Amino acid sequence: MHKRRWIVGVAAGAVLVSSAGLAAAQIVKSPAQAAVDSAAPPASVITAAVEYRVLADSVILRGAVTAEQTVDVSISGAPAEASAAVVTKLRVRAGEQFKAGQVLLEVSGRPVFVLPGEVPVYRDLKPGMDGDDVTQLQTALRDIGHGTGTDREGYFGAGTKAALHAFYTSVGYDPLPATTDGDAEVEAARDGVTEAERALEDALAPDGEAGEDVGATDPAEKQSPAPSREAERAREDLRKARETLADALAASGPMLPASEAVFLSSFPARVDSINTKVGSVVADKLLTVSAGALVVNGYLQQHQKGLVRPGQKVQILSEVTGVSAAATVASVSDTLQQERSDTTDGNPGMATPSGYLMVVEPTKELPSELAGQDVRLTVQAASTKGKALVVPVSAITAGADGRTSVTVLTSADTKRKVTVTTGTTGDGYVEVRLGAGARLAEGERVIIGTRNHLSGEQSR
């Protein structure tokens, strides 16, 4: 019995010694094994698929939608019969289109209308005047259906007066007279002619009969056998009186006040904004109107300028309305545009560059509601001709000999280097072209970097 217990004890002790030895073996390692076990695992490669598609390089910037012509409508002074310039009617709404000859608003009972033309109004136009602005008025009146008769181009004569009077009547207003006492001056001149005619008659025939040329109907044509000095003077007075009457007639009639006309280059035009309301005293700017096709102006920065040239395609996007439109680059300035910052503390702001002006023309007319909006412009700076093999830019490596290549991972531990020539780049990808004998197909995986498993860092 004692012998059996002794055998069991020995066996148990052997097991304990064996277990302790095994544990010690797990804890105690040789220096070489410890170094191997503590080394970082090998880095794994990161790959991307070779793609076959159209590649486009894009330049994105902001742009402002503007018209070929933009005019701020303002009124200086008040009509003669009004004590103050007050907006009494508004005939248009913001965003509305209007045509030539239309009244935009009324100030102190007087109209403000638009006419076709490119010369800005800078003076009141009155009968008897000459100039290019008179020619523009004549052309505008004819364009809206009011002929100017036999007046020569550039002269404000009887035909132009009649046409201007007819236009005012058509829009529901009476034209202002060119002179304050125009009718009185004409009547006074007529009276002067009558008096001069009678004076000449008296000089030619003091007694009412002697020397009278009965066949003459014009007193100036009546001849006496021996004209006296008094008769000669009377004839001169009559000539001057008739000239005065002609001048009074020429100067009388309707005028075009500079405050009542706005000239725009094309129609229909648009109301961009309204800065007043009925009852308001006239401010510096009442309305902003624009004419001509809408274009978009953007500013390229130095690093973008070399990528953009006239003729490239552009996508216009209004983030406000969601409207998008196709366009092309019309021009790119070679001069860096400068703009001055706002004045602060009474000192002028510093000049700051805003970039190189790029003008974009839509392929179709833009909706009028885009006028004045800030939009996003995406310029297609370059594109492959059809589909091409493309890889991420990070897949390209350059050798000491200047050749570029990509490395294809064919299996877990097999790689193949393929020499390529690069082409168009865009959106982080680059077009690759293969030399003779080179093989690279869509779907193959190219190495674009490595990843360290311990740090999680990636490298190329």
TrEMBL record:
Which Gene3D superfamilies does this one have?
A: 2.40.420.20, PGBD-like superfamily/PGBD (1.10.101.10)
Q: Which GO terms describe its cellular component?
A: efflux pump complex
> Which GO molecular-function terms appear in the entry?
efflux transmembrane transporter activity
* Keywords tagged on the record: Signal
Q: Does the keyword Nucleotide-binding apply?
A: no
- Top-rank taxon of the source lineage equals Bacteria
Q: Does the keyword Signal apply?
A: yes
| Region (Disordered) location | 203-237
Provide the leader sequence positions.
1-23
This chain belongs to which protein, by name? Peptidoglycan-binding protein
